[in-house]
Amino acid sequence: MKPPPRAVVLLTLTLLTLGLALLSLMAGRVWAPLSAFTDMSDPRWPIVFELRTPRTLLAILVGAALGMSGAAMQGYTRNPLADPGVLGVSAMAALGAVGTLYFGVAAATYWMLPAAAVTGAMAGVLLLLALAGSTSSAVTFVLAGVILNTVASAGVALALNLAPSPWAVNEIVNWLMGSLADRSFDELTMAAPLIAAGCALLLTTGRALDALTLGETGARSLGVDMGRMRWALALGVGLAAGASVAATGVVSFVGLVTPHLMRPLVGAQPGKLLVPSALAGAVIVLAADILVRLTPSAAEVKLGVAMAALGGPFFLGLLLAMRRRMS
């Protein structure tokens, strides 16, 4: 079956994002009709514009950042299992952020948590590239990601074990599970410029990612500066994934799932996969956030928990499909 034109795919994803954004403003324990959007005397008006608007915009930004980061990492590593969450980048960002929560500097200085998360994510990308090496296989990258995840998880567990009070433990655990609940315009204004800068950097790597399909030697023969490309990738993923983790906590599997969903529609060319993956990531996070709000439970299910429940089976299916191809 012939895939649809790329412009049609992008237009469909854009319309889906806008439609889900409108639904996100309406959906929740208290439903807000369209009439509440224009009537400031309606008691639901503050719910829409003070609570749900920053939450909806953050869902779009975080989904786009994780989707594009996953597509860029898969393109660079030529590895279908690459993703900021699976390969430990998100865990390293979480470790940096948890350090600020543990020492109490996040509350004292607002910019410390996002700065620590971005620094941790950048360090994670650089360590991943260093551990895996320039001629690594898919297995090597997964093993390098396991090492990063293990080290970061050990650091987070140590912070929980030595936390000075039960309130600190509760704050760290709630943040680690990932959620868009109770996010305000403060988190939005913090994350938006960092995510925008990270995504802009990743977009500049599109030509280099396409050339890398020929291997590093072929890419260099086409004039690609591999050192500059690696730094652009590390800074781009670090800013985008780090700011996302700083704003919402750890939300896994978005970067893994979205490129696989988009390849049958737009092709496997890495550079052309970046924008569709960003839009698809926004669609997935928006849809998941709407579902967790509508879940009939006493407390709202955390977004990170919901994405892990959805992404885990997808990851398992992907591994089984790779094993069948290799056998």
What can be said about this structure in brief?
The protein is mostly helical and 327 residues long. Helix content is 76%, strand content 0%. It is globular and about 65 Å long.
Cα-to-Cα separation, first versus last residue? 27 Å
Q: Write the H/E string, N to C.
A: HHHHHHHHHHHHHH
The first-level CATH class is given as Mainly Alpha
- Secondary structure class reads mainly alpha
CATH superfamily descriptor: ABC transporter involved in vitamin B12 uptake, BtuC
Q: What CATH architecture label applies?
A: Orthogonal Bundle
Silhouette: globular
Please count the beta strands (DSSP E, at least 2 residues each): 0
The percent range for strand residues is under 5%
Mean residue pLDDT: 86
CATH topology: ABC transporter involved in vitamin B12 uptake, BtuC
Largest sheet: none
Cα-based radius of gyration, to the nearest Å? 20 Å
Helix percent band: over 70%
Ranges where pLDDT stays below 50 over 5 or more residues in a row are none
Quickly count the helices.
14
**What count of domains describes the coordinates?**
1
